[in-house]
Amino acid sequence: DFDPLTRQEDKMGKVIRGQRKGKGTVFTSHTRLRKGPVKLRKLDFAEKNGYIKGAVKEILHEPGRGAPLMKVQFQNAYRYKRDTELMVAVEGLSDASFIYCGAKAQLAVGNVLPLKSIPEGCIVANIEARPGDRGSLARCSGDYAVVVTHDEDKGTTKLRLPSGGKKTVKSVCRAVVGIVAGGGRTDKPMLKAGRAYHKYRVKRNEWPKVRGVAMNPVEHPFGGGNHQHIGHPSTTKRIASPGQKVGLIAARRTGRLRGIRKTAQDRE
Q1: Partners of 53 in the beta sheet?
Q2: Which of 41, 45, 148, 158 would you call most buried, defined as having the most Cβ atoms within 10 angstroms of its Cβ?
Q3: Contacts of 192 by beta carbon, 8 Å cutoff, 6+ apart
Q4: What are the residues facing 19 on neighbouring strands?
Q5: Rounded to an integer, what is the distance from CA 144 to the centroid of its chain?
Q6: Confidence (pLDDT) at 261
Q7: What pLDDT does residue 220 have?
Q8: CA 70 – CA 74 distance, rounded (Å)
Q9: Residue 60: which H helix or E strand, with range?
């Protein structure tokens, strides 16, 4: 009911966990120990027309990230100084390696080249989605994308991403040759709650996660009842109100994936 004296409505129900997460507060990411933004070099004249040499100075671990990082030093082309870049490390590099960035760099592990200079079937990582965005695709530990085809008329390149999906990007976008280091990280089971605690402690506040069916009706649409059950379809519409928008949101299909699952590679 609306109270004309306080000009407030009596609010019913409770703000549920999913709504609280949007606000930030205690759910913001834990960034205090992070090493810095992880990017390729800024695209400059040297990379567009030739190549530039960089020395890998250090391989680093960043809390909250599965993939190792590397500090790479480049000679500044315009002033007497060195520039240090923080990049995702690829398998096969060490802290004594040299890498080359540019259109005329060799096709070797760790080198940064535009996609048009990389042959079809080559394995790449840390790829730019748009020219000059300094790397945004295939950056997790053990990830890589495959260059499928080049369309020279349109100036585009088709990639197969780690998800199995295809993406077409401009051929001037840069990529690192090789696989991101730290692969096989998820093969080892967690085994105990303490390991999950330390994993998420440096990422963000998202563990442990209480199930909706274990809550009361005031706390979640799936809560309540004499047994832990949802009691209605868990699918919900895209335009559902916050607080109601839980479960399988705008699901195209539900249930188990039965039979042989066709990957994007098989469909071709």
Answers
A1: 100
A2: 41
A3: none
A4: none
A5: 12
A6: 62
A7: 96
A8: 13
A9: strand 52-60
Cα angle, residue 203 at apex, residues 216 and 214 outer, rounded to 5°? 15
Partnered with residue 40 across adjacent β-strands are none
How far apart CA 101 and CA 83 sit, in angstroms, is 14
* pLDDT (0 to 100) of residue 6: 58
Neighbouring-strand partners of residue 249:
236
* pLDDT (tens digit per residue) in 98-123: 999 999 999 999 999 999 999 999 99
Residues contacting residue 132 through CB under 8 Å, at least 6 positions apart: 42, 43
User: Residue 6 corresponds to which tokens in the numbers above?
Assistant: 């306080």
Interstrand relation of 235-236 and 248-249 (parallel, antiparallel or unpaired): parallel
Residue 174 in this model has a pLDDT that exceeds 60? yes
pLDDT of residue 22: 85
pLDDT value for 264: 53
pLDDT at 263: 59
Cβ atoms 56, 71 nearer than 8 A: yes
Average pLDDT, the chain: 93
Contacts of 15 (CB under 8 A, 6+ apart): 243
| Cis bond before residue 208 (omega within 30° of 0) | yes
| Beta bridge partner(s), residue 147 | 159
Task: Calculate the CA dihedral of residues 27, 33, 39, 44 and round it to 10 degrees.
Answer: 130
